[in-house]
């Protein structure tokens, strides 16, 4: 069982690094905690940890009840680093709480 809870005064995020190779993201799945729903977030990719490209921006209405959400992405660029950034919460506290996160796509070895 995985659980991620981050607190920040600005926009909390977590980062995934592929230690070798790169991936082209075709989609992702996240499982929210029902007591702490997210409303807006961004999935970004980078190859140098300084320049970030938006892979997907998401917004979920407050009445969305599914705890597991699937999203398709149309990225064509392979990345080594990925950031999941919380841009807004339903209760305006900018905490990032997730139960599970998966990325789907094509892996390219170095």
Describe the structure.
The chain has no helices and eight strands. The protein has strands spanning 4-7, 13-17, 22-32, 38-46, 53-59, 68-72, 81-89, 95-108.
Strand and helix layout:
Blueprint (H helix, E strand, L loop, with lengths): L3 E4 L5 E5 L4 E11 L5 E9 L6 E7 L8 E5 L8 E9 L5 E14 L2
Antiparallel strand pairs: 1-8, 2-7, 3-6, 3-8, 4-5, 4-7
Give a brief outline of the structure.
It contains no helices and eight strands.
Using brief descriptors, characterize the structure shown:
four-stranded antiparallel sheet; 110 residues; 8 strands; single chain; mainly beta
| Percentage of residues assigned to helices | under 10%
Radius of gyration: 14 Å
What's the story with the biggest beta sheet?
4 strands, antiparallel
The protein's oligomeric status is: single chain
Q: Helices and strands: which structural class?
A: mainly beta
So how many helices?
A: 0
Strand order of the largest sheet: 1-8-3-6
Q: Report the end-to-end length measured between terminal Cα atoms.
A: 31 Å
**Regions with little confidence, pLDDT below 50 for 5+ residues:** none
Beta-strand proportion: over 45%
Tertiary shape = globular
DSSP summary, beta strand count:
8
Order of helices and strands: EEEEEEEE
Mean pLDDT over the full residue set:
85
């Amino acid at each position: 069982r995985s659980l991620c809870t981050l607190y920040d005064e600005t926009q909390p995020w977590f980062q995934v690094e592929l230690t070798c190779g790169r991936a082209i993201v075709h989609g992702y799945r996240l499982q929210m905690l029902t007591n702490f729903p997210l409303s807006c977030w961004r999935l970004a990719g980078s190859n140098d940890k300084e320049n970030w490209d938006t892979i997907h921006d998401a917004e979920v209405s407050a009445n969305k009840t599914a705890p597991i959400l699937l999203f398709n992405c149309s990225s064509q660029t392979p990345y080594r680093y990925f950031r999941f950034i919380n841009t807004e919460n339903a209760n305006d506290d900018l905490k990032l709480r997730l139960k599970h996160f998966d990325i789907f796509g094509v892996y390219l070895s170095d």
